[in-house]
Amino acid sequence: MTEQTEHQMPQPTAEHKLIQSLAGKWKVACKFYMDPSQPPMETAATEIVEKIGEFWTTSKFETTLMGAPFTGCCTFGYEAHNKQFVSTWVDSMAGVLCTLRGTKKGDTLMLDGEFFSCMTNSVLKHRVTDKLISKDEHIFEMFATMPDGKEIKMMTSHYKRA
Question: Which of 139, 93, 84 is nearest to 116 (CA)?
Answer without folding.
Answer: 93
